[in-house]
Amino acid sequence: MPRLLLDGRELEASSSQTLLDSFQAGGVPWRESCRNGVCGVCACQLFQGKVDYLGRQPHALDNKDRRAGQILPCIAYPASELLEISLPAYPLDCPQLTNL
Ligand code: FES
Which superfamily does CATH assign the domain made up of 3-83 to? Predict the structure, then answer.
């Protein structure tokens, strides 16, 4: 089962679940809106590991974002056993930031 490291916090992920769903199942609030790779509000930095978009396109990320390691967890599935991800800069405990 893939493991997620989020700024020192560790979660288990499911290969059949998006990273966003795994964050939320693990009690980590995350900003989201379209859940379709278009708006970009869920974007975060992948430092280690790989993701698979399973044929979907991360439209909200340009080539520079992708080369820099930005990912869209709403459509990304874990594709390695360990993924290290940076939490976004906004306060994750702010309830208004989910389901924007
Ligand atoms: S929620 Fe819109 S791109 Fe992820």
Answer: Beta-grasp domain (3.10.20.30)
DSSP string, 40-61: -TT-EEEEES-EE-TT---TT-
Domain ranges across the chain: 3-83
pLDDT digits (tens, 9 = 90+) for 35-79: 999 999 999 999 999 999 999 999 999 999 999 999 999 999 999
Q: CB under 6 Å to ligand 1: residues?
A: 32-35, 37-42, 60, 72, 74
Give the Å distance between the CA of 36 and the centre of ligand 1. Answer: 6
